[in-house]
Amino acid sequence: MFNRFILTATAVTWALCATQATGQQSSIPLEDAASKRRAEQDAGARSLIEAEKKRPRLAGYWQVATPIAVLTATDGKTPPLNAAGRKLYEQRRAAKKSGPNPDPMDTCTPPGSPRAMIVNQPFLLTQTPKKVTFFMQTRHVIRHVYLDGPLKAPTGDGRMSLWEGTSSGFWDEGTLVVQTGDFNGVQWLDDSGLPQSPDMLVTERFKRIDASIMEAVISFEDPKYYARPWSARVVFRALPATTLLVEEQCAEKLLEVPLVEYAPPKP
Amino acid sequence: MKHYDNARLAKLLVLAAVLVLAPNFVQAQRGPRDPEGTILTGDPARRDITVAESVPNISGVWTNQTYFRTIRPVDGSETPFLPWAKAFFLNRSAAEARGEPLFDPNANCIASGVPRNLPVPYPLDIVQTPNEIIIGIEVMHSFRVIHLDDRPMPADFKPSPLGYSRGHWEGDVLVVETTGLAGYTMVDEEGRPKSGSMRVVERIIKLAPDLIENTYTLFDDRTYARPYTARSLFKWAPDVRFGEYVCEENNRNKPDASGKLRVR
Fold it and tell me: What is the model's pTM?
């Protein structure tokens, strides 16, 4: 009687275990289209991960070594503005002197590319096989760089006219190349007001120099405002992994009502 | 006497069965795994490859399946307002019903913050690194950095809409604690208030390869009589890419040819 009870109880336990195990397997419907798609994506991901293992690491917190208020070309000269570019640049400089600052960044709009990186604020660069993302303290903008290859310039209906532009990237040996276009043409390239037309193509080449330094050679092609393509070199220094990005609330200065805590003070 | 022994033995056997089955149950609850035992991933190529493979992968883009304007207790109970908070909320609701909504920092381009941005109908883009989990938020282009190194909030931290978040994995559950929240943002779109003492604890888990659940509890004894818990579900959306959301531009108010902006 006693033994029979033990046998029955054991059998029930095993049966329950088996049912549970089967149930668990059947919770992954392999025939399911979504699962199939996932499996394909996983296989694709594996080859991307293998490629990523061979790449240099750019991930981490960075800040421009010397903030740049006025971009200078790599030859040490001022950027080669053409007549239209010079006219707009002089207009902006004059407006800055005569009245309220006409800089679009003053109205809290996204700083654009590469302006967000040359102001004196840190950013977090994350690196994954499919995408590199820049999380900027400046205006808390996110630059999404999908590693889709060279930028296919959007035309016609595909044209978005963006503050930050559309970026696409790829690795050229040990260098991360990021191409950005599709700008709205309103944001300034730097604090001084260098112009950027909607047709500008920005090509940034990021390279890790050593443990503490990353450089970006940035080329600008914009026949509307510049006589010829030109480049600038920007140096970034690595910040500790414990860096804390500060949450900037630029819009606070645009408010007509002060921000207050609604709760009564602590008793 | 013998009868008593059998009952005790039966109890022991039930206990043994529970002990044997419990891990299976828990595992089944936590979502399917591949044969190697790791949870099937959203997108393995969308997180930093230096993150240990044993860490559940929540990287990639997720869209909210449970958009709501109100953050109410998930158990169906009434929001446990303290008297001042109830008066504040009713006043706002009445003003909105009259078509004269009161000042909302969020409508003036101040980040909605935690917890208000948890149930929003905009995509999230999550990146996992060894040191942090970053949640990119399309609305008003902001992002949360969840620190995984157990660093306490710095003493001089300036309270902000998103506050200071730190997280750790408890098995397959990402537990995130957020403090340092500003008292000037609301809990939700409807206008439930909060104080600067609010603490939010999120428990984030993959229920299935394509589904994340975030169960979050609000602790704020200056505003609510007891902590309360709400819940959001997010579906994996591998093909979604963020649009540019510029609140300051109002997105309908394009700058004119001279670059002049009209900020409302």
Answer: 0.83
